[in-house]
Amino acid sequence: MAKAIASMTGFARAEGEYVGTTWSWELKSVNGKNLDARCRLPNGFESLDARVRSELSKSFKRGNFHVNLVIDNKQKSVKLQVNEDILQQVIPLATRIGNDLDAVAPSIDGILNLRGVLELVEEEESPEDTENRLTLIVQSLGDAITQMIQMRLEEGGRLAEIAQSQLTDIEDLHKKASELAATQPAALHERFKKQMDELLKDGSPVSDDRLAQEVAILVTKSDIREELDRLSAHVAAARDLLAQGGPCGRRLDFLCQEFNREANTLCSKSSDVAMTRIGIDLKATIEQLREQIQNVE
Length: 297
Description:
Blueprint: E1 10-18, E2 21-30, E3 35-40, H1 48-59, E4 63-72, E5 78-82, H2 84-101, H3 108-113, E6 118-122, H4 127-199, H5 208-221, H6 225-244, H7 249-269, H8 273-293
Helix pairs in contact: 1-4, 4-5, 4-6, 4-8, 6-7, 7-8
């Protein structure tokens, strides 16, 4: 069964919440020669870096990924507690000062109002909650990756349609070049004969045999049938790769290089303006195809 074409461009976001902690994952990807990931993780979550890279490698073959995790713990519950160390220093000190000054013993309210005796502290999270939260965070990463896969496939479908259309344009130009190439021997014969007649109008005319030999040499030098045959084979190979789907961007990019090589040779062998124009149109269409292919995974 054929696989879908995937783009290397995409964006995904997934959020979660557990006992007062909220988080969000953001994934961005652009085209790249290989699979590469840059992760921004909060303090205390650095261990997730290896997990992120592992999960990405299971789903993607190419692309530069930027992964960002934001954790918000502001809603954690807090409790009021007595700082025992400070309290054990305050009570004897207050008693001694009271005795020295013959003053009223400090009240409980007075002692508790002293700075540092009472303090607000975050409630410690249980190991079970810590484990559950981490599990849910990893699950959210999976949700973000699923979104990214879907977006890259949708974009890949559009890229495949554009590529197929551009391959059709290349085929149309190939057909025009083939039709024009079929008329070139006769055109070369007529052009060369006319040139020779101009050069030798005051002398002996060129014999038909010599004229045929010279024209044969020109036709051989300007023969583009091999280039056209290879161009047709490259189009067929590209269509096969698009039909098979999957990670085929590298092979398609290589075919674009081959397309361009044939177009360059066609232009260099061209013996008239019309063929040169076809070659230039071919090169422009091939470059447009290459721009799309470079985004294919």
